[in-house]
Amino acid sequence: MATEYPNPKEVEQLLDNFHRLLADANDLRKQANELSGGLIEQALDLDAAASAVKEEIRDAVKEHGNYKDLSTGWEARIEARVSISYDPERFIEVAPDYAQACIVQQVDTTKVKGLLKGGLVTDDQLETATIRKVTEAFICPTNPKPKVKEA
Length: 151
Description:
The chain is mainly α.
């Protein structure tokens, strides 16, 4: 489905304001970093280093076990998260009166694409079984390509 671009002036004006604000914020960040003698950039580097160490901590906990120190408040642990699902055939056995309301039949679209690719079915054959659902996605990049002025 092709996307239409009528390019309304109202949206252009708002985008112009949006990108000016982003550029101004970026300029202020650069100025702040220069005025701080590079401290802001150093802080960002330290944040990145801390993130890397956090990954090392996760690996160490997996290998050696959880950690908790009440005096410092430091804690690193791995918790079990349980996800529950039900076997449809067994559910029918234990709750046959409610099975139809609870069990959802679904077609695996990845496998259907394989059937199409292999020539085992055609788009025409699948047309009556196809459900199309259109949703919207808002896309507004924060660092777009520069606007080119027409001559």
